[in-house]
Structure prediction request, 601 residues.
Amino acid sequence: MTAPVLEAKGLVKLFGRVVGLAGVDLTLYPGEVLAVIGDNGAGKSTLIKCLSGAMVPDEGGILVDGAEVHFRRPQDAQAAGIETVYQTLAVAPALDIASNLYLGREQRRKGVLGSFFRMLDTRGMNRHASEHIKTLGISTLQNISQAVETLSGGQRQAVAVARAAAFGSKVVILDEPTDALGVREPEQVLRLIRDLRERGLAIILISHNMPQVFDVADRIHIQRLGRCAGVVTPQSHSMEDAVAIMTGAKMVGADETT
Amino acid sequence: MDVTRSLETPITAEDVLHRRPSFGERVQQILHGRPALSPAIVLVLACIAFSFVSDRFLRPENLSLVAQQTAVVGSLAAGQTLIILTAGVDLSIGAIMVLSSLVMSKLVFDHGVPGVLALLIGALLAVVAQAVNGLLVARIKLPPFIVTLGTLGIFTAITLIYAKGQTVTLSPDAFLLWTGKTFDIGRFHITYGVVLMLVLYVVVAFALRYTAWGRHLYAVGDDAEASRLTGISVNRVLLSAYMAAGLAIAVAAWILVGRVAGGDPNSGINANLESITAVVIGGTSLFGGRGVVMGSLIGALIVQVFKNGLALGGYDPNYQVLAVGVLVIVAVSVDQWIRRVKA
Prediction:
């Protein structure tokens, strides 16, 4: 098998006396979808926040392409090619769709207007943004200059996913990306995930939706009480098995772990 | 709602979707896209109304006076806008302005420092004072209201201690008084201070609209945590907003020196609250992330037009205070209504 693109080793994160992560390992290979499932409080969100730079783990290491990294801020993870769609979506409601796509990575005009007056290339960003959204096949976003606060939950989600897909060069992390969506939209997100995988990106998908997880994931990392209770595949285990491991009703045998 | 009609012709989702927006909804949408529009309408209506109250109101001499009286608070409001856009509020910029203007004047008057140098030192003082506010807000995460309430007291006290109860009057040809000098366009008497204020507004408006910094300022005011997760250095944006406001304070201080012909520790007492009033009337949301700086200029003008117009009409000055109070309440109510817009 190819070398992992992202590895976490022995991640520990404490919140006062509450244990968020009690030494978690995670391995992610290029071109795969790794689902992370677990009950509430199992440490899913803490785990991905450590991987995306939103939180700094107390112990343990993170490796990107085999080299150790220390993410202090989300920018550090972004610079390493890791993009994240947070459950809270992390969009600025008053700004329009294009501004949100480019938030924190704005492009400046060429020449003295950009270098001295630091003027933004708004037109160029708008054009790229709408082209990009068209390529992703996100049909719910039509007017690129619409303020995000006037969008529905699903449309906002699409903005956040589009941003991650646009800038993630190695890893895209999605935290409950279908949570706020209607009936038809999750299918679009799942298709998007497969597209990203086709392009060779590695995807971490956090979800409560078992059918979706078993539909799209290559491997499933099961979190329980701050630890990894096992890594299974949709082929080796059934949905019932996964839920049983998640809730502690069943253990994964060492030989079963892929 | 006509119940019988709706029973006869069932309303489907498509009907609702394609229903033309009501007049109120359309107004709401237009105002949502253009935050400075409603204050601009108020300003025009107010000018028309006061032209009936007094035939002197629309005379160039009077309008020039309104502009001159707006310059100090207007410049301060440009800085205040930056802070309020980050969902903060600055109670100390007025006190910092007075201290800065006093330092400028006293450096020239007491120590014979060249005017340009005194101006730069006064400006530096304003920026450093705002950096203190900014650091306390960004690094120590104290609420801006509390931080600036504290520094309001500190800078007011420093001003009074430094002034020793004296005012400073500069000689009429002093460089620092340039902002109070006038030139004429037709029958309008424009001070250089007014021009300086307008330049300040153009610069701030450009920075907010056309630079990444401006966009980040809106994003941070809108949702600081989301901005952090997107990869914006929230602390740096906050600190820079306070320091940029320091530059606006420096401009206001220079204009103040021109207006009072020197340094007066008791000048500009109400300027701070008036700057907040101007920003709020100008359509900038106190919850941050929404508004345009030109609105604050219009807001400052509205306040001055009401004061001037009511004075010309011979009304008790207390009515000026009353009118401004009503305007603030109306402006914030309109803001709340606009924020609920749906596309």
